[in-house]
Amino acid sequence: MNREEYNALIExxxxxxxxxxxxxxxEISDYEYDQxxxxxxxxxxxxxxxxxxxxxxxxxxxxxxxxxxVKVTHDVPMLSIEDVFSKEEVVxxxxxxxxxxxxxxxxxxxxxxxxxxxLRYEKDENGLLKLTLAETRGDGLVGxxxxxxxxxxxxxxxxxxxxYDSLQLRGEVYMAxxxxxxxxEEQEKAGKKLAANPRNLAAGTLRQLDSAITKERGLKMFVFxxxxxxxxxxxxxxxxxxxxxxxxxxxxxxxxxxTAEEILQTIDEIAEMRSELEYDIDGAVVKVDEIRxxxxxxxxxxxxxGHIAYKYPPEERVVVMDEILVDVGRTGKITxxxxxxxxxxxxxxxLCGTNVSRAxxxxxxxxxxxxxxxxxxxxxxxSGEIIPKLNGCVKPPKAxxxxxxxxxxCGSLLVNEEDTADIRCENALCPAQLxxxxxxxxxxxxxxxxxxxxxxxxxxxxxxxVKNFADIYKLxxxxxxxxxxxxxxxxxxxxxxxxAIEKSKENDPANLLTGLGIRNVGKNTAxxxxxxxxxxxxxxxxxxxxxxxxxxxxxxxxxxxxxxxDDAGNRQVIxxxxxxxxxxxxxxxxxxxxxxxxxxxxxTGTLPTLGRKEATELIEANGGKCTGSxxxxxxxxxxxxxxxxxxxxxxxxxxxxxxxxxxxxxIS
Length: 668
Description:
The protein is an alpha+beta fold. Helix content is 35%, strand content 20%. Residues 64-68 have low confidence and may be disordered.
């Protein structure tokens, strides 16, 4: 590995450390991350002169999150544990310890996949050993004060019946599979984003600013170490765990071992327990039981002395493909789901504590590459111990699955998207896409029908009131029924929405063209097109050659427009919209010019007399192009009061900044 590759590897690891420790949203599995770290350590062993204090091998990973609580400096650093990946490495480490301390014993325990937390207890004026502080790991030296949330975890004892002046315990906060699944079921019912895995959800929950949410989600905790305490707690790790357990403190599963053989046997037993546990583990920890010996076996600045963690390889099962489900996503993209059973048991595959019978198959290219078909056998694992993924073909099927020619929902011909592996149904009014299509039509950038959000549109579709754009303008025929059913709420709410629908008929045709949801035709493109036509009907009949003659309209966009308007069903809807009174004609250009032709302008801040919309319309009426963000392509920034970050960016790029008055002078 050369220096450039080494720097690229550091950048990659830092990115994934941030995703895991700070964002609680990892993109790769623990195994994949561990392989990156092994590559880094190998490079640094060969080139020790490359190592800096900022190297991922020298730091723990997380950073304290200011928004979630007050920062706390740890009395005892909350360090990581060095990972090993083979039993030979475990035996070598045990032999190293035994060579110095032949009488030494060890504790072998489950490595809980959660969020590390230290609990500080102090004796109060009544002689009670009470919890005074709970702190997360953060960067290992500084963490967050999460005491209020910790008190909502039943496993965290407010008072310990022990005769000590002070005590510090470290443990792992986790979420049981049952509570995790319950949370995701509730999220799904509410149409909200699902949590990726129990570890991430536990971390996010502990950092909540609202302790009621922490209580509601049912976090749990195991203590796995005495960080600081009296002599009787700091002699033998296992004895300390026993004392805590007798006080009602939940402690991690642990077993005292004396030989390498006993340690390996316990590691294997924990592996067998893994699928039956109600929580996730990602390894087995081996600790020197005699705490006074631990400092004799340092492992670097970021790791605890006298510990190693054996990481289990990812669980894998062989499954047989029973069925391949083809569906249409809300954007028209065809989706594929494989349904399978465990080859050995005939039941859903058991992986990482959950039953798995389905996996996403991505696209036809993936299906071809993996030789996926009915009756084929495949390796299955969980990416990041979260998402089920196939990992190679074991036995090919008789035939590789092929995508049908027509949409499984509406029967329209499917189209291969250019330069991608995606296949789409391009019928915007396909029932699978209808909620998204009609919601977009009603949105702010299109017809701006206030009160017609996605949930309302979905309710109208399910009740049979709307099947296309034109049906929206027929809703007034169902006024009394809509009031009775409460689709828009009570009478006042219904009247308000019907009035908004009526008002939208007066919109500029560019809004209508935007709302039709033609691929590659967004708000700005629609405005550009309508500057060259007097009616929507003219656009509907324009050839590809005419369309590509318009600035910024390429062949791909022109073909998308033609395909949309060549569809008889779409032409019929346009006819119905016109009959309903929706404006199809562009206003006559009065008092406009081309003084700003070819210029790209951004408006920001509060202008003295013009509103943002008025300024945009004025610029476009004079041939300019108005965009929402500053870039190298921006010619001018029109800045008012409280211009903010756009002004800073314009200055950094050397883009001219003008006032409202200067803009008006440019036009006049």
